[in-house]
Amino acid sequence: MSPLHDMLYEAVLHTASTQAPLNYDSPLALKAFLETCGLGMRKKFGQNFLINPGARKTLLDALELEPGEGVWEIGPGLGAMTWDLLERGAWVKAFEIDPGFIQVLRTFFGTHPRFCLVPGDVLKTWPHAGEEKYLLGNLPYTIGSRVLGTFIEQNRLFTRMVVTVQRELAQRMRATPGSKDYSSFSVLCTSAYTIKPLSILKGSSFYPVPHVESQGLRLDLRTDVDPRRYPACFRPLVRCLFASRRKTIKHNVYGFVASYILTKQGISKDSARITREVLDFCGISGDKRAEVLGLEDFVALAAVLERITNAEL
Ligand code: SAM
């Protein structure tokens, strides 16, 4: 930034430190603010500000935060939703990668007792960042699926998450057995959370306008199933069954049993018999494909296979 920009930047920020200093609903105001600060928008960070105040309110309401709760905000940008979170009494831990936005956030919220900034790539900074139970994020398109997939796979689970993601990603997350979008990612997401769709957001809800539509989602942690009870088998099995999705369930479960379970135990000859017995026990037809299996089928298979894995054969 030039010295002039530095001065303007300080002036703009100084006058504005107690309440939202920016009209977050106006592309013109946002553009002017960024120009004054010598900042720009970066496509590589998936930067599209949510300029629709109704949509921001819907997302915040859906989080159902009680004052005093801790929340991770992924990608706060210039802080449009951070102000509201703080106003609602939340303790906010904000993960932001853009060095310019980080400066703005520090100036806006740096002295707020309930604000904590975690600068850098959230995919690297999240471990050891804390145990807050809520997550809010208008997730950048560039990392939406990776953030959600990583958190679930690594068992960093939240009581509730409210996110906006690309509409196609929302469809993949919520897909049901037999549909074209159904994948191991759908099973992963629905095994951890019940997923409720919120509004669909057209490109005009964002600045700059993206080429795709987005969808708000509310995800509540499931208590009825917990795949963490089957750490050795549930997720590896789901991946294995979808990796060769054109092959039959029988073929893929056989491969899993042979290579994953029995080899570990130094046995190789019983795979076919065990596969048959496991499928019979779970009441699953081995001649179909993984895409017809529901969550309860994966859980049933994982439960039996986990017992075999842990058994002294
Ligand atoms: N929350 C703001 C809003 O709704 O207007 C901005 C949302 S914008 C879609 C995504 C934000 O995530 C940007 O501020 C971007 O810089 C940030 N971001 C992108 N990749 C990131 C990463 N790997 N780690 C942390 N923040 C990231």
In short:
The protein has 313 residues and is an alpha/beta fold. It has helices at residues 3-14, 27-37, 53-63, 80-87, 99-109, 122-125, 144-153, 167-174, 184-192, 234-243, 249-262, 271-282, 295-310; strands at 49-50, 70-74, 91-96, 115-119, 134-138, 160-166, 193-201, 206-207, 214-221. It is elongated and about 70 Å long.
Overview of this structure, please?
The protein has two domains: 3-228, Vaccinia Virus protein VP39 (Rossmann fold, 3-Layer(aba) Sandwich), CATH 3.40.50.150; 230-312, Helicase, Ruva Protein, domain 3 (Orthogonal Bundle), CATH 1.10.8. It has a seven-stranded mixed β-sheet. Strands 1-8 form a two-stranded antiparallel ribbon. β3 (91-96), α5 and β4 form a beta-alpha-beta unit. It is an alpha/beta fold and 313 residues long. It is elongated. The protein has helices at residues 3-14, 27-37, 53-63, 80-87, 99-109, 122-125, 144-153, 167-174, 184-192, 234-243, 249-262, 271-282, 295-310; strands at residues 49-50, 70-74, 91-96, 115-119, 134-138, 160-166, 193-201, 206-207, 214-221. It contains 13 helices and nine strands. It binds S-adenosylmethionine. S-adenosylmethionine (SAM) binds at residues 45-50, 75-77, 80-81, 95-98, 101, 121-123, 138, 140, 142-143.
List the ions, cofactors and other small molecules found in this model.
S-adenosylmethionine
- First-to-last CA distance: 67 Å
**What is the N-to-C succession of helices and strands?**
HHEHEHEHEHEHEHHEEEHHHH
Count of strand segments: 9
Shape: elongated
Low-pLDDT stretches are none
CATH-derived architecture of the largest domain: 3-Layer(aba) Sandwich
How many structural domains are formed by the residues?
2
Instruction: Please identify the top-level CATH class of the largest domain.
Output: Alpha Beta
CATH fold title of the largest domain: Rossmann fold
User: What Rg, in angstroms, do the CA atoms define?
Assistant: 23 Å
Number of helices: 13
